[in-house]
Amino acid sequence: AKIVRRTFHVGNLTITRLCQSTVITAVNGKIPGPTIDVHEGDTLVVHVINESPYDLTIHWHGIFQKLSPWADGPNMITQCPIQPGGSYAYKFNVTGQEGTLWWHAHVSYLRATVYGPLIIRPREAYPFPKPDKETTIILGEWWNDNVVDVDTQAVLTGGTPKISDAFTINGKPGDQYNCSKDMHRLTVDSGKTYLLRIINAAVDHQLFFKIAGHSFTVVAIDATYTNPYTTDVIVTAPGQTVDALMVADASPSQYYMSVKAYVSSNSPYNNSTSTAIVQYNYKTSTSPLPLKSKATMPVMPAATDINTAHRFYTGPTSLVRSGNPTVPLQVSTHMFIAFGLGVAACQPQQLLCNQTTGALAASMNNVSFQFPTDRSLLEAHYRGENSVYTADFPNKPTVLYDFTSNKISMGPFTEKATKVKRLRYNETVELVLQNTAILGTESHPIHLHGFNFFVLAQDFGNYDEFKARAMYNLIDPQVRNTVAVPAGGWAVIRFVANNPGTWIMHCHLDMHLPMGLAMVFEVEDGPTPDAILPPPPSDFPIC
Ligand code: C2O
């Protein structure tokens, strides 16, 4: 195992997309930012220098941060932001996980432009035939406006942020937009096998992904290996990753790779399509070729094709290997978390909020998460100061009702509060995640920091314990860090709280984060020296 050092200079970059020049915040002058490529077991030290005008934090999405929660990155949860002119070295081990993850800013809307791949290679071999080549495909979302302004505007009014102007593939919108020719190109050799590392780094949209004329064999999701799963469409929620093998076995030509939104309701969304080109290498091709053929477009699913999404989301199963954690069978804490949108009284920072109708809010068990302002939760936890939060996050909703109906039997008004759920070290937690239909049905990707979890079952409708237990996969369930809980549906997940610290669980549609679709687990120290939270590093940012 090595120590891998990287430096991120984060600052302004003037860039032209869709014929408009915009000043964005970018890492090392690039969008997407630099790819970090390590081997399992390495130690990563990323020196982040904030040359931007904004408060900044970086999160290493999906990394466990075992005993390094100070490096996790969510703003005001595990750290105060790195202020303009400041710097912080994120230092952590990359142990016990392999595959594709990513990193992104975890403050305001900055992750729209501050993001990049984090690839963890096995120390030995892949558990699938070695591909001839590997390539990373990172999907993003683009605003012509300054994204911090987009976020600030939404916060001031207590409403929803402006919809993005484009989707991107490796930072480029592609040729289906007005005034956009800039397109990612992937050149392939006939007959060769490619490992595509696909990352959904979009801000507010789940995405369908296809390549005309080609199909995929999924071999990993969220940096956990799966049994081979064949499909011609890949569906990802923001935060999720898919590693898939693709054989270049079509007739040598050009094919479009397309990306469009998957949404589960007809509320306004970005309905555009981003494209890239898969180009067969004519020089290595053995068959005669058309010199300039027109590229073929894939037929994309309808934006609301919930069945295709559900099939993909529930399809792959995990690859059981010796050494991998198995599903814990004894559960010590059961929780039922109902979440969705709602309304809350206007907050002081919501200066333009309509006092009569209140602000749009989102909640878990009717608590709309309030981010602390002067000290991060992790510091407060470490110093034993409970003035910043209370440990009374409810284990279940106060009233059970028909979650899938828009008939509100529990008022949509939520309480703004900083509540955590305290867990004993190493206890096993089972969560029922019930998506509600109040104020619109939407599939929410729920992401847990600090852990992977087993997805035992998921389905549409109201959670039914009897039905759910009959569906449990306790043999080879998916192992993920982000689960897309179906609109008006539920998922049951299980994890072992083997990592002391404070870990946020939130919706990975960024617009729902300031609205409060989040809660925090506070995991106590364990009995052994290797289970005790270490002190913060000396360069730890202060508020
Ligand atoms: Cu990828 Cu809390 O985020």
CATH architecture name of the largest domain: Sandwich
Radius of gyration: 22 Å
- CATH class placement of the largest domain: Mainly Beta
Number of helices: 4
* β-strand number: 32
Strand content: 35-45%
> Strand order within the widest sheet?
10-9-12-17-14-15
Ligands bound to this protein structure: CU-O-CU linkage
Q: Terminal Cα separation, in Å?
A: 35 Å
Unreliable runs, pLDDT <50, ≥5 residues? none
Which bin fits the share of residues in helices?
Answer: under 10%
Provide the number of structural domains.
Answer: 3
Keywords: Apoplast, Copper, Lignin degradation, Metal-binding, Oxidoreductase, Repeat, Secreted, Signal
Domain Plastocyanin-like: 11-124, 134-281, 394-525
Function: Lignin degradation and detoxification of lignin-derived products.
Family: Belongs to the multicopper oxidase family.
Describe this structure in words.
By secondary structure, this protein is mostly beta strands. It has three domains: 1-125, Immunoglobulin-like (Sandwich); 128-319, Immunoglobulin-like, CATH 2.60.40.420; 333-531, Cupredoxins -  blue copper proteins (Immunoglobulin-like, Sandwich), CATH 2.60.40. Helix content is 6%, strand content 39%. The chain contains four helices and 32 strands. The strands form seven sheets. A six-stranded mixed sheet has the order 10-9-12-17-14-15, with no helix packed on it. Strands 21-20-25-30-27-28 form a six-stranded mixed sheet. Strands 11-19-18-13-16 form a five-stranded mixed sheet, with helices on one face. Strand 1 (3-17) and strand 2 form a beta hairpin. The chain is globular, with a radius of gyration of 22 Å. CU-O-CU linkage binds at residues 59, 61, 74, 104, 106, 239, 447, 449, 504, 506, 508. It holds the Pfam family Cu-oxidase_3. This is Laccase. Its cofactor is Cu cation. It catalyses: 4 hydroquinone + O2 = 4 benzosemiquinone + 2 H2O. Its EC number is 1.10.3.2.
